[in-house]
Design brief:
Chain lengths: ~140, ~130
């Protein structure tokens, strides 16, 4: 092994890699930031669609609601709304727990609980839409 | 944590004079959490009941039309509009606009005022014209 003082080769490599790693981390943070805003905008757009659609429904009984959800132009936006909203909701609740729960153990429990619950709720809701849209008696 | 008791603490939550911008900031989190937990539960219950069948749907509809559930519906509407309006305010701030204090406070007030006004207008319409109360 040569002494670091007599072998300066590793230094410039490390010096180059550090800013590269920093830039990569920076790009990742920037991508997350942009992705979160895009997610919020998509949530907003899909909730405007849901509000208008519900406003236009003549009634809220099961037959009317399921008949509406069987149409592709209701089922597809509804599935997207579920996907986007539960992702938005999960990220939001994670931020709240990260900021206000300081004890490491309970923080971990809350974060795991939020992730599991959000994914379960989203999967359940999406499955229900698919069952209505594709199920027996559909069409 | 070690600190010199003779030196002042860094400014923290308790020493700030409350303003609309601070209220809107914390309300964004409170309404977001409320919408996630209560709104998310009602939303999934509604879809589950619709997929499950007439009996399950009748149970949901029974709760949804219960007079005290109106508090939940009005609360969710207000929380949704408050979160939506302060979310739009955040979009403006994300592009770097609206940070001057008078402007920032003005739009913070506007989100609070419009969330209440729109909630009141919507539910007045639903209760008096749609439900014919």
């Amino acid at each position: 092994m040569t002494d670091a003082r007599t072998d300066p080769a590793p230094l410039p490599v490390a010096a180059e890699a550090a800013p590269a790693r920093a830039a990569a981390a920076h790009d990742e943070a920037g991508a997350d930031w942009g992705h979160e805003r895009l997610l919020s905008a998509a949530t907003l757009a899909l909730f405007v669609w849901l509000a208008v659609s519900l406003w236009r429904l003549p009634a809220f009984d099961q037959a009317t609601v399921t008949q509406w959800l069987r149409t592709p132009l209701a089922a597809v936006p509804m599935l997207l709304l579920i996907l986007v909203t539960f992702k938005h909701l999960k990220l939001g609740l994670i931020v709240v727990v990260e900021d206000y729960v300081h004890e490491a153990g309970s923080k971990l429990v809350w974060l795991v609980l939020i992730k599991f619950a959000a994914i379960f709720a989203a999967a359940l809701a999406a499955f229900c839409v698919l069952k209505i849209a594709l199920g027996a008696g559909a069409g | 944590m070690t600190r010199t008791p003779t030196r002042p603490l860094s400014p923290h939550l308790t020493i700030w004079k409350w303003g609309p911008h601070m209220a809107v900031s914390i309300l964004h989190r409170i309404t977001g959490a409320g919408l996630a937990l209560v709104g998310g539960a009602v939303f999934v219950w509604w879809l589950y009941a619709a997929a499950e069948g007439p009996e399950a749907y009748a149970a949901f509809a029974g709760w949804a039309t219960w007079k005290w559930a109106l508090i939940v519906w009005i609360g969710l509407t207000w929380a949704f509009l408050q979160h939506l309006l302060s979310g739009l305010r955040h979009f403006v701030m994300d592009v770097g606009a609206g940070y001057a204090l008078p402007v920032n406070k003005f739009w913070a007030w506007m989100t609070l005022v419009w969330a209440v006004l729109l909630t009141a207008a919507l539910w007045a319409y639903i209760i008096y014209w749609r439900l014919g109360a």
